[in-house]
Structure to design on (340 residues):
């Protein structure tokens, strides 16, 4: 039976962001659920088989209040020539690290298989990023009893999600760490969180999960006062004891070596916010070829991580990263959203 998004939230209006690539795993989802929040498990970069194992682990940890987050597939690279030129510019970095670039292949992140898995064994909620799923997909999840949340960064994307039948929207402000989550991969019309919440209220009364730069209780309260039902925080949990964040990423966040963040396409071919290291800055205007650039740079990023080379690693972080703390997740929840 499909519930209202309000009923699915725990006693605290806080949602753990799905952070693909390691940071959010079953242990972190279980810890925030225990602390009275809703946790979103990322399905991105996981095969359907890996996702099934993650869901099994959540069950073994007796987590029943959770959601699963899926990447909506992207169209093919719009400019092969620009892609080839960008990859040629990356080769000296690859040579320096003694690796070959990966094949710039296109894929759909195992979309159909993951849909089939989740429709056969539905979680309470599915959330989508990188665009709005077709209305048939939203309908199928509704039939299966799931709530559907779509990530939006602009009012036109919100209209699309409303038309597709979404039950709620994740409103991702410009401050957010990680990839921009909307349909279009450009920076036109992208708004800071509080402005975005105001603009979305003009087009829909669906419940909103506010995301982006929320690193303190005061920031969380501001977003709630601006009309959000709950706040979706990612970066604040990157250093949590239970997070699967890579050591190099943890070190970079705490080192003070990178004082700023930047929106860059350098690592994946889609705009994402991360610490402003050398490659993030040099490749910020790389062509919009996702996931081709993600696959091509993977060996480079793996070699850099193994060597502790922080200049060519994707170090996703929102603007509030200096407030992130290395503590148990339950304590981070209490700091962001004190009980009572
Ligand atoms: C390391 C990292 C990975 C992320 N991966 C995903 C993801 O897989 N799916 C998704 O919808 N959002 C992802 N995001 C974005 C979050 O959902 C959210 O918008 C963002 O964390 C909010 O901003 P904040 O990081 O400043 O709290 C990621 C963010 C970070 C920092």
């Amino acid at each position: 039976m499909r519930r209202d998004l309000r009923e699915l939230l725990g006693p605290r209006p806080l949602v753990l962001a799905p952070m693909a690539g390691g940071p959010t795993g079953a242990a972190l989802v279980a810890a925030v659920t225990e602390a009275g929040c809703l946790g979103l498990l990322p399905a991105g970069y996981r095969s359907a088989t890996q996702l099934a194992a993650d869901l099994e682990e959540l069950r073994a940890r007796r987590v029943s209040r959770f959601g699963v987050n899926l990447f909506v597939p992207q169209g093919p690279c719009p400019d092969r020539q620009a892609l080839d030129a960008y990859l040629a510019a990356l080769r000296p970095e690859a040579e320096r690290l003694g690796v070959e670039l990966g094949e710039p292949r296109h894929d759909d992140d195992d979309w159909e298989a993951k849909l089939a898995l989740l429709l056969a064994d539905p979680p309470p909620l599915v959330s989508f990023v990188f665009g709005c799923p077709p209305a048939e997909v939203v309908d199928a999840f509704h039939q299966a009893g799931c709530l559907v949340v779509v990530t939006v960064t602009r009012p036109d994307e919100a209209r699309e999600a409303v038309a597709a039948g979404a039950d709620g929207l994740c409103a991702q402000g410009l401050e957010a760490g990680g990839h921009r989550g909307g349909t279009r991969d450009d920076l036109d019309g992208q708004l800071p969180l509080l402005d975005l919440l105001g603009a979305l209220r003009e087009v829909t009364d669906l419940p909103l999960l506010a995301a982006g730069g929320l690193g303190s209780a005061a920031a969380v309260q501001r977003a709630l006062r601006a009309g959000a039902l709950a706040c979706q925080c990612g970066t604040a949990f990157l250093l949590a004891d239970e997070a699967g964040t890579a050591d190099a990423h943890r070190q970079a966040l705490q080192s003070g070596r990178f004082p700023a963040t930047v929106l860059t396409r350098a690592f994946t071919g889609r705009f994402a916010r991360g610490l402003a290291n050398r490659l993030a800055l040099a490749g910020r205007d790389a062509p919009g070829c996702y996931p081709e650039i993600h696959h091509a740079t993977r060996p480079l990023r793996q070699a850099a991580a193994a060597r502790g080379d922080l200049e060519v690693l994707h170090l996703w972080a929102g603007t509030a990263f200096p407030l992130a703390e290395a503590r148990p997740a339950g304590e981070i929840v209490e700091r962001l959203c004190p009980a009572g």
Observations:
- Residues 17-20, 23, 42, 44, 69, 129, 151, 172, 175-178, 181, 211-214, 232-236, 316, 318, 320 surround flavin mononucleotide (CB under 6 Å).
- The CA atoms of residues 102 and 296 lie 4 Å apart.
